[in-house]
Amino acid sequence: MRADEASPAPPAASPDSVFGVETAGTEPVPADRRHGRPWSLFTLWFGANVQFATLSLGALATSVFGLDFVPAAFAIVLGTLISSCLVGLLSTRGPRTGVLQLIQARGPFGRLGNLPSAAFTVVNGVGWCVVDTVLGIFILRNLLHIGFTPALVVMTAGQLAVAVLGYRMIHYVERTLAVLLVAVFAVVSAYGFAGAHLASPSKPFAGTVGAFILTVSVTSARGLGWAAYSSDYSRYLPSGSRPGRVFLAAAGGSTVAGVWIGVLGAALGTVGVVADPSSMVSKLLPHVIGSVVLVSLLLSTLASTVIDLYSGAMAALVAGFRIPRWVSVVVVGGLGSILTWFAGQHDFATQFQNFLLLTGYWLAPWAAVNVVAFWWGERRTQPRLEKLYDRGHRFGWGLPATLLGVAATLPFMSQTLYTGPIAAAHPGLGDIGDFVGFAVAGLAYAALTAWKPAVAPVPAPLADPVGAASAD
Fold this sequence. Notes:
The chain is mostly helical. Helix content is 65%, strand content 0%.
């Protein structure tokens, strides 16, 4: 059976087995394998965002971008809300369709037009795997005083062990860690906020408008990295799960964690530069407490990475690779480990900033097209589930609209790899490429599809009356 056929693969273990290897590929999840409640998305996205990368990104705002704590906190809240709402919106599509986020994108993009999105999602998954692995290596070297290569081996083994098992194990790990990490970050918050320079007596709102916008951009770009995966972790929910509850659970978990840990990172950044991020924690806390916190941060980093590995591997299957899901996980994880070796030899803060901005240039227009397609276009025409697997549906207007959005970002790009002419002429503007790309792509897709004649909507696929009754 091909990985992209619409009929489900037979399960190798019980659907409720945490330790069984998931056998589902890119096919829809059938009604009899749907389970869970929307609340599970809160713990998943909370656990995914209570992590070292969020802390490090918050620290960039104050220690590298030069913002004072107050404007940095406002920028982090704004950027987190933008991306979390998109994750919440896209998550609502999972229970309704039972398919991966990238499979849903075949509606506006077409089967072949969706291939660049699939390829980028693989790259995004590998890139985040590299970021989180480097952060984990920082922690291991701080804790165990071991070399870079042994630390890389440990990180790779831990990540692959969870990602290979799949959906149920990922939810289990995130749910378990959510409780632990609340306690751990409460301790870090107590020490961090107490020892931070939360305001300058002379300039309580120090920092430029450009630095504020840059912080909003990189913060929203971090969350946008999850957007391409959103439905991957809600597609097993019963089809009758209420969209409002799905949205609040996914967006709420991402927002609460992203704001808390990001603002905490901004506080920590007021007392030190982000060179080795683990030193922000180890130097702040007493030795014993600091070691416990670093171990917890290591676990949170592993938990975040497995989401990127899992969805990056799924994207490879959507792109057409005819291999088992677990093999795809191993390939994506192996590639990430190789790239980690090279990334670990250079300046972390600069690479992290550039990576976030570069991914946002594609993800923002892509997300805009999907939002317009699903919540505006479908009011007039809603494609059947079979169309997502129809080989005759090769291209849609999604790819041209996305490319227009990406092109529109070029003059506004502002990072060390490239600075656009408008950004260069107005350096105080910061990097607003993501926002320009989102607006242009969304408007372009709406305009390109406006001529389509109205047709009657069709019923939601994969109806599950039994599951719907128990979804809440």
